[in-house]
Amino acid sequence: MRKKKKLVVYSFLLPSLCGVLFFYLIPFADVVRRSFLTAVTGEFRGLDNYRTIFKNEAFLLAMKNTVRFALCCLPLLIGIGLLVAALLAGHEALWNFKSACLLPMAVPSATVVLVWKIIFDKRGLLNGLLNDLAAAAGLGRVFETDYMESKAAFWVLVASYIWKNLGYTVTLWFVGLLSVSKEQKEAARVDGASRVQLFWRVVFPQLLPNLYTITVLSFLNSFKVFREAYLVAGSYPHESIYLLQHLFNNWFVDLSLDKMAAAAVVTGGGMMAAILLLQHLWEDKG
Amino acid sequence: MKAKRNCGLKKVRGLLAAAVLLVFSLIICLPVVLLCSGSLTGEYEMYERLCPMMKENGSYVSWRWIPEFPDFSRFGRLLFATPQFFILFWNSVKITGLILVGQLLTAVPAAWAFARYRFGGKKLLFTVYIVLMLLPFQVTMLSQYLVLDRTGVLNTHWAVILPAVFSTFPVFLIYRSFAGIPESLVDAARIDGAGEWHCFFYIGLPLGKGGILSAMVLDFLECWNLIEQPLAFLKDRAKWPLSLYLPQIGLEQAGFAMTASVITLLPALCVFAFGRDYLEQGISASGMKS
User: Fold this and answer.
1) d(CA B108, CA B126)
2) Which end of chain B is less packed: N or C, by CB atoms within 10 Å?
């Protein structure tokens, strides 16, 4: 009987497990092995590949930009998301606005590439609008930024990330906010807590477990801004938005498999460490 | 008296919140509205409006939300008289459809196994699944390439489909809804003599339907928007999905590009409109502790 049950369990699991092993786990082990070998001859090189990438300027730039991007866009997204979710949760009549926030999730990146170009071009809609306002204020033409070809590209990317992911974050915050116990809020209000105090002292501590998941999921989604960055600005965008994703793509085109292997191990290891750290914090609080 | 003032205050607050959210929503929807109005603008009018981007003539792009010379014929021409577009559209449909079917066949039983049975190494294996779900494509890109190269499917649609079928994200999502089915219910069925597969089909599938649909909606939106995978694994442009082809259309053909974009957008919008509740459920489930 037990043996038969075991067989059933594996028959449920096996198709998925085989695929995961074949397409992800075994080849990743191979990548780890390759990260210590030369690309062409396959000779053992020790840590040379790692040394090469850490001396590689493109890798360092991409690493810096990717980290900088995450550090800028995560607090912004999470903060704005919480604000919108709090506005929504307070007024049941407004819950339909959540759908508007979710809409960008359904919009394929490729379909809005042209729209981004039209808005953020040097002669585009944004500059046109800003200069109209400036002219009305008697300033003349002051906005001449070419957004995609300057440091502003970074902020365009941050904006497009927030546009795309706000609905996801709002939904997650919203679930958290609704699960906060009503009795505790009521009790605090009777004790004379102000709205601000109520939020920071009573509601927010209960949302901490949500904060961890939202951070992890938003961080993962931040890797997908490559789509917008690549489609709008190509393989070699302005250096402020040259991300790890661009670098992987370019190394792939050049078939620099040894560098890619080492970079995949470093990036994967780094992310796993970050996630485990967050999970650790999450389990402590949750 | 105080109660009345409080009530008034609450109303004002509600109106303020509504105003803020309305502005937010308008900004969020703006790109889509712009796209839709552009898709109906005649090619010549579009050229005139976008002229400042192509020639330095000192003026700025101007936009009319309702085009002066609307042109509906492009939709018909694209759908029925442009075979290239048709091929790309079917590439997208084929890739997305096969990925979803494959995921249904593998992820749903796997999620059932994780949610309902105890077996050796389960915890470790589930952690591996979660870690895989969390890794971005770039980290697994080289490993996927190595397998696809060795199995000789590079530059065919299978190179994009196969790895995506075994993505572990749907397993995780569906697991959440299976885990919520009370054990006593399944046990009762077992006592009545139902086999394990019977339990899966007659209890698991109907009760876990919400989670399965959530995963499908989220995955559809993801697959319809594939960029990285086809870019890396499909050399032949005739095999590209729409999501990769659209940005190749030049500014001179902006009207054409926008119409093509709207046609690409429509299936995703339909799924969004009909599956909105499942989408929200799916997002909430992805945020739950495992």
Assistant:
1) 14
2) N
Reported as a pLDDT band with limits 50, 70 and 90, residue A161 is: very high
In a domain, A80, yes or no: yes
Q: What tokens appear for A245 in the block?
A: 């994703």
Rounded to two decimals, the ipTM of the complex is 0.88
DSSP state of A44: B
Residue of A nearest to B125 (CA): A17
Domain of A231? 55-112+160-285
Q: Does residue A193 contact residue A273 with C-beta atoms inside 8 Å?
A: no
Pick from A7, A227, A118: which is nearest to B196 by CA?
A: A7
Taking the model in full, what pTM does it have?
A: 0.90
Topology given in CATH for the domain delimited by B77-286 = MetI-like fold (1.10.3720)
Partner B, chain A 22-61, Cβ-Cβ below 8 Å: 22-28, 30-31
Task: For residue A249, give the CATH number of its domain.
Answer: 1.10.3720.10
| Mean residue pLDDT across chain B | 89
**A213 in any annotated domain:** yes
B225 and A267: CB-CB below 8 Å? Answer: no
- CB interface of B with A, residues 70-99, below 8 Å: none
Question: Is residue A42, in this structure, part of any structural domain at all?
Answer: no
> How buried is residue A248: exposed, middle or buried, by Cβ count under 10 Å (0-12/13-18/19+)?
buried
For chain B, domain boundaries: 2-74, 77-286
Helix (H, G, I), strand (E, B) or coil at A202: helix
Do residues B196 and A8 make contact, with C-beta atoms less than 8 angstroms apart?
A: yes
Cα–chain center distance at A255: 27
Residue A13, φ and ψ in degrees, nearest 5: -85, -30
Determine the distance in angstroms separating the CA of B214 from the nearest CA of chain A, rounded to an integer.
14
Q: Quickly list DSSP for B56-110.
A: --S------SS-SSB--HHHHHHHHH-HHHHHHHHHHHHHHHHHHHHHHHHHHHH
Contact status of B38 with chain A (Cβ, < 8 Å) = yes
* Interchain proximity A27–B143, CB inside 8 Å: yes
Please tell me which of A90-99, A172-181, B125-134, B156-165 the model is most confident about, judged by mean pLDDT.
B156-165
Give the closest of A118, A119, A264 to B142, CB-based: A264
Can you read off the two tokens belonging to residue A116?
A: 């981004």
> What is the count of structural domains for chain A?
1
The answer, yes or no, to whether residue B5 has pLDDT greater than 80, is no
Question: Distance between CA atoms of A224 and A66, rounded to whole angstroms?
Answer: 11
